Amino acid sequence: MSASDATAMPLILAVPSKGRLQENASAFFGRAGLKLAQGAGARDYRGKLLGVPDVEVRYLSASEIAAQLASGAAHLGVTGEDLIRETLPDVRGQVELLTPLGFGNATVVVAVPQAWIDVRDMSDLDEVAAGMRTRHGRRLRVATKYVNLTRRFFAEKGVADYRIVESLGATEGAPAAGSAEIVVDITTTGATLSANALKVLDDGIILRSEANLVASLKAPWGEGQRAALRTVLGRIAAEERARTTREVRAALPESGTIDLATIAGLHEAELPYGAPKGPEGEIVLRCREAAVFDLAGALVEAGARAVTVRRVDYAFAAENPLAERLLARL
Ligand SMILES: Nc1ncnc2c1ncn2[C@@H]1O[C@H](COP(=O)(O)OP(=O)(O)OP(=O)(O)O)[C@@H](O)[C@H]1O
Ligand SMILES: O=P(O)(O)OC[C@H]1O[C@H](OP(=O)(O)OP(=O)(O)O)[C@H](O)[C@@H]1O
Ligand SMILES: [Mg+2]
Predict the structure, then answer these.
(1) Closest CA to ligand 1's atom 11
(2) Is there a contact between 34 and 23 (Cβ–Cβ < 8 Å)?
């Protein structure tokens, strides 16, 4: 498709249609003022973003989202980093991980039966695997749906005597069922592993994953899609900036001066509306949430008469760092 054909096409935004990422994903877009409007009902897998033209929403499973970002069938999507790293042969060349989203946290781990008391880490596992091979002529079986992550991790750890048994669900049941000796799977609370009498190896953490906002480098990025991208990412950045910072307002002293530049520098605060024009008046700073009390204290100490701190809903700025980072790579 040529760039001019792509101009008339919408930006395709892929969001999880089910599972544990779905609710969190729509809440995330909602906070950023991006309301997802699903078509006729829960079974209509297309929708729109209210008030943002040139965007088509597609509801897909989390693993399908990874595949569509890889191929360029979707421009933007929300999915787990585990699925991105498992599905894409060249993560850097195919997508840009724009920002982690703080939900969908899960860890991909190597787990073995608790009964294997002498097996604590990957080098112990290597011995078991080598032993099985030489003594019984069998290879250690690893049940997983994370075939690529498993191969890469085992190679890094120098474990070679194993074979993968592909699992499509209920992976943790494989050892008890006799279809594999160990598993590589995702865990969050650990409940499923314990229920199946499995334990994670000490150095068996393959990846700590969470849901990410991901952009495709392979999708056709025409002018209309780039404009829609700026709108969507501008709102997401404004919400994030607002959520992670606080606005600190201070009444400057009637007499004497405050060395605002030094105080701001010390607490990594910005002056989003600029420095005060005269010695008196009101000044607005913005700082990280964790720096609020130190900054407020420093202002009072320096003679500020009233200091108030508030949360803001959105903090838009001329810069659009998420969009700029992506556009620089297209
Ligand atoms: N406890 C968890 N177990 C599995 N995945 C989780 C967990 N917590 C977060 N996730 C994330 O959610 C992604 C999708 O998992 P989810 O279970 O929603 O869908 P799925 O496994 O692809 O589909 P389904 O379970 O319906 O077959 C995972 O790849 C992972 O990134
Ligand atoms: O550590 P825990 O909190 O117990 O969570 C981990 C379990 O959750 C997921 O299964 P899911 O319910 O998604 O079923 P699936 O295997 O069919 O995807 C995952 O595959 C683990 O089995
Ligand atoms: Mg699942």
Answers:
(1) 104
(2) no
Hey, which residues does 141 pair with through a beta bridge? 163
Q: Which residues of the chain have pLDDT under 70?
A: 1-7, 41-43, 279
Among residues 112, 164, 161, 119, which one has the least CA distance to residue 137? Answer: 161
Identify residue 84 by its one-letter amino acid code.
I
Ligand 3 centroid to 169 CA: how many Å?
A: 8
**Cα–Cα distance, 9 to 56 (Å, whole number):** 9
What Rg, from alpha-carbon coordinates, does the chain have?
Answer: 26
pTM: 0.90
Q: Which residue has the tokens 């809440």?
A: 27
DSSP 296: H
Asked if ipTM goes beyond 0.85, one says: yes
Element (H, E) at 12: strand 11-16
CA distance 207 to 108: 5
Residues enclosing ligand 2, CB less than 6 A? 169, 172, 185-192
pLDDT digits (tens, 9 = 90+) for 107-125: 999 999 999 999 999 999 9
Checking DSSP bridges between strand 182-187 and strand 11-16, what pairing results, if any? unpaired
Write the DSSP string, 42-88: TT--EEEETTEEEEEEEEE-HHHHHHHHHHTS-SEEEEEHHHHHHH-
Q: 215: which 2 tokens?
A: 């952009």
Output the residue whose Cα is nearest ligand 2's atom 18.
169
| Domains of the chain, CATH where assigned | 3-104+210-220 (3.40.190.10), 106-208 (3.40.190.10), 244-310 (3.30.70.260)
Residue whose Cα lies nearest atom 17 of ligand 2: it is: 169
Write out the H or E segment, with its range, that includes residue 16: strand 11-16
DSSP output for 23-47? HHHHHHHHHTT--EEESSSTT--EE
